[in-house]
Design brief:
153 residues; alpha/beta; Glutaredoxin; 5 helices
């Protein structure tokens, strides 16, 4: 997906078994972020950064939704371990990740693999993507600050 595209209506099912739809957030903005694997160092740092700045993001009108290929049980454990107060979609069949363009080839430690590309989409009140943070731009430990800096610029 690109800037100006509408996100899919059905986003998926979260860690608590709830179906999450774009229309659930109509009139609100979204930080929709994709991450490779729950409970890993980079993904934990990113999720905790977003949780720590959740109030500031909400004050700017944004709700947070995370997406990874992990099963709901692992997403639930991740949310519980780090007191994450936002939905984590368990996209086990990669439908949403592929639709977003956040599933593809990546290189880690010189090895090429296919998997989730760490990406963040800022979505407006109508479900339209307004900004995309690419994998190379995202600094996991301060990602929420990156988003807030962009929002406030």
């Amino acid at each position: 997906m690109n800037i100006g595209d509408r996100i899919p209506e059905v986003l998926g099912t979260d860690q608590d078994g709830r179906e999450i739809k774009a229309s659930d957030y109509k009139g609100r903005k979204l930080v929709l972020y994709t991450y490779p694997k729950a409970n890993t160092s980079g993904c934990t740092a990113e999720a905790c950064s977003l949780q720590q700045h959740k109030a500031a993001l909400e004050a700017a009108g944004y709700a947070i939704i995370g997406v990874s290929k992990d099963r709901a049980e692992l997403q639930k454990k991740f949310a519980d371990n780090y007191s994450l107060e936002f939905p984590l979609i368990a996209d086990t069949n990669t439908t949403l990740l592929q639709a977003l363009g956040a599933w593809g080839e990546k290189v880690a430690c010189g090895r090429r693999t296919i998997g989730t590309l760490r990406t963040t989409y800022l979505v407006n009140e109508e479900g339209i993507i307004e900004k995309i943070f690419t994998p190379k731009e995202i600094k996991t430990k301060i990602h929420a600050e990156q988003i807030l800096s962009y929002i406030n610029s």
